[in-house]
Structures are given as structure tokens and as C-alpha cells.
Amino acid sequence: MGLVAFLFCHCDTVGSIRQVRMVTQQMGLLEKDTESLDVEEETPNTRQDWTRSLSYAAHCALTVVKPSFLSRKSDKKNGKLRRTAYLDGLRGFAAFLVYWHHHCLWAHEAMESEKRLQNGWGYEGQYYFATLPGIRVFVNGGHFAVATFFVLSGYVLSTKPLALINAGEYTKLGDNVASALFRRWLRLYLPILATTFMMVCLWHIFGIWGNFIPEPNFRAGIWKWYIDLKSYTFIFRTGGEPWIDYNPHTWSIPVEFKGSIVIYTAVMAFSRCTRRARFWGELALVYYFMYIADGAHFAMFMAGMMIADFDMMATANELPSWLTNLSFLEQPVSYFMLFMAFVLGSVPSFSAEIQVLRETPGWYAASWIVPQAVFDYKWFFLFFAAICMILSSGRIPWLKRFFETRFCLYLCRISYMLYLVHGPILWTLGDRLYAAVGWTREQHAGTIPHWVNRMPLPRIGPYALEFSFFVPHIILLPFTLLVAEIATAVIDNPSLRFSAWLYSKFEARPEEDRRNAENRA
């Protein structure tokens, strides 16, 4: 986000180069005390030291800035990827779909993008290539991507605990769940605190207009940020918006944390059950969340846990005989699931009213199977779409190879920060580039009038796939990936290390456990 501010400081604020220099000094990009250097008295050794220091600093800066997928380091160890590397790639590609989803809606807002792109093909007589089943996933598949995130999270969070349960390592299971639960809040929320604070600074320090109404002064902005955060980070609250005004895309993170608690609770509750009983318990929770309570998101987490359990059985050759006897159907069934993933993943999402779904060509019959408990029908269909995509991606060779490509795995490594920073970049750099090529919005006349139609381009191509829409991404996509890469290095990874370090400081040592046990006795 600091790079965004630096790029637009001279365009969106009134000031001289001297002011820009002062801002960059505050950002730490320039040496603040350059006047104190006495160059004339510098000795050769000092010059060499400075040369080495500058070379080292430049190397460190390039290491942070250079996208890791361009480095020579491979994701492979001993020539082999991890068994579930394709799931990492799937997560990364899903993060890219979220990026594209929001850009499509934002750029086409003046053309009623919310209604046209998020309704189904043929609704109210509107037929757009971008809304065709399957095509829609790649144009407006953000909700499908989020459902995939939730199922994958259930899979990943439960894999290690389930392995410990199967091995009978119950003491290690307790240690694992305790550590994971302790670190989870910090891992999810610390990056949000950092990125949203930068959004507060955009207007009050750098004068850059974003997707929010700024407070009268910086102090008021900080206070509003604090008020939003204290409500947002309390996951048991009832009412209020589920996001922070400085980044509405953060609505899914409280769901992610609550889903984590569901997984850890289920793991411990079923830890002493037989495998068969555990599997039926997982299935019962899926049914409860989907058909009894309005908890479709948590059904996705539990489905991920079921898939992890199923995969462990398959790896250990412990699947039921009736299932192994059907192995010859694996490929056709996998392709059918992939087909269903694209069809169900294209479910209309503009309105939660079931009547809208019934009026959409091709969805009338499907609308009658939506459970009464599900108040937003799209999550019911996306639940099955995400499951089908995950199950098929590991069983279709060419699809698995695609998700194991270096670029998809790179997207996975930066996926969380890509999710958090793509919105702020869209609302700053993206908004201006779209305005420059002709994708104007009503408020541009009052916010960034000098960017409007600076270089208008023809709108050649199908709706949401126009030439003038693609051109800004020559800048936007590399820049967003670069910022996400840097944010991963300076925000996300340190947050992970900090949470692990903090737990290590709080964790009781074996001798302390023994003394505590003796005291209780």
C-alpha cells in the first residue's frame, strides 16, 4: 500500500517535489539525514563499506520485490511436489478469481454490472457471453472462489489432527490443537490490522481518494478505524456489518475464524470415536449446518474435514471394498464432477430471493431443492460446486498439473495478502486507470476529474471482456502481485512468526506440567 501512495502522491495532492521528498522520507524510502554526511572527508575504506552496504541493501530490496515464482528456487523437494500441492495451487487460482471478480464489477459499474454480471444467463431477456454457465466462473467467480477457500480450510486445518488421531497420538493431538487455536486469531487478524491502517493513511497523509468516506482529520480516522476493528474482531457479536469499512472484502475472515473453531471442536469431539463413527458425525454436522441451521459456510468447513478423512483412508488403502471395486469409474466420475463444478459454480448471485433464481433460465427445477434453512441460495449450490472442484482436481491429470504449476503455487503463497490488498489497489490505482481509458463512474467528476478519459480506448469485445477493460491489467495485475508479494514478506510472514513466537513464550514446559499435575493432586 505504501507503493500505491508513492505512485499517486504527485498526481492526487497539491505540492512540490520538495513535499514529495518529505513524504518519501517519512515512508523510509529516502535517507532522512543526508545532509549530515561529510563526503569530502570520506576515506577509501569508508567508501568501500558504503558500497558494500548499499549493495547489500539493494540485494535485500530486490529479494523482497522480485516475485518468488521468477526465482530459481523450486517448490519441489528431491524432484517431487507435496502430495497435496495441487490444492495449494487451487487456492492460489481461487484468489486470482476473486481479484478478477471485483475488477469486473468495479469497472462496469456504470453499466449495471452488479445486476448484469451476477444474474444468470437469460434473466430478464439479457444474454451475455460472460454469464454463460462455465464462462461465468472465470469472469464473475468470486463467490465460487470463497466457497473453495472454506472447503480447503476445513481440509488443511483438520489434516494434521486427523493424522494424529489415526496414529493414536492423543497427547500430541492436544498440543497441536492448542497451538493452532492460540495462533489462529493472530494469523488472520494481524495482517488486516496492518493493511486497513494503511488505508486510513491514504487520504489523511497522502491525499489519495479511496473507496470510503474520509473522516475530517487523521485522529478521527484512527478513532473510526479502532471502533470498526473492536466490533469486527469479536466474532460472537450479533448484528452490524461483517466487514471493516476500510476494506469490505474482509467479510470472509470472521467466517474463516469461526469455521476454524468448528473444525478444532469437531476434531476434539470425535478424537476418541471409531473412524466409522467419526465419519458419520462429520456427515451429521454437514447436514445440520446446511439443512437445519443457516450455516452453509460451516458445512463447507466440515466437508473439507470429510474430504481429508477420505483422502487419508485412500492413501492408507483403507477404503471400503465396494468403493475400490468402482475404481474403473474414477475418470468419468471426475470429469462429471468437474462439469458440475462449473455449472453449479455459475449460480446467479445478485439476489438472495429464491424467486429470482426460478425466473432464471435453467435454474427453475434446481430452485426447489434449496433447503428452507439456507437464506442465500447461492451458498447451497456453491457448497457442492467447491466439493466437486476439489475432488476432481486431484483425479484429472491435466487439471492437477495445471494447479501444480509454479505460477499457481506462487499465487497460493501470496493468496492471503492478494485477497487483502487487491481491493485497496483497485480503489486507488485501478479506479484511476479505468477512468483514464474510459470506464468512468458517476463520482469521478468530483473525486478524480483530471483522470477521466485521459486516454480513451474502444470498447471492443463482449460485455465484461472488452479490449479497453483488459488493457489496464497490463499495469494492474503485475503491480497487485508485486504489492501482495511485498506484503507477504513484510506483514503476513512476520505475523506467522510472531504468533508462533508468542505461543512458545506462553507454552508450559514439561516440568511445569508435572508441577501443575502434582499441585492438582
UniProtKB/TrEMBL annotation:
Residue ranges of every copy of the Acyltransferase domain listed in the record: 85-445
UniProt signal peptide: none
Pfam families listed in its UniProt record: Acyl_transf_3 (PF01757)
InterPro entries xref list: Acyl_transf_3_dom, Acyltransferase_3
Keywords tagged on the record: Membrane, Transmembrane, Transmembrane helix
A GO MF label: acyltransferase activity, transferring groups other than amino-acyl groups
Keyword Transcription regulation: no
Transmembrane segments: 137-157, 188-209, 285-308, 335-357, 377-398, 410-429, 467-491
Coiled-coil positions: none
Organism superkingdom: Eukaryota
PANTHER family per the UniProt record, alphabetical: ACETYLTRANSFERASE, ACYLTRANSFERASE
The name this protein goes by in its record: Acyltransferase 3 domain-containing protein
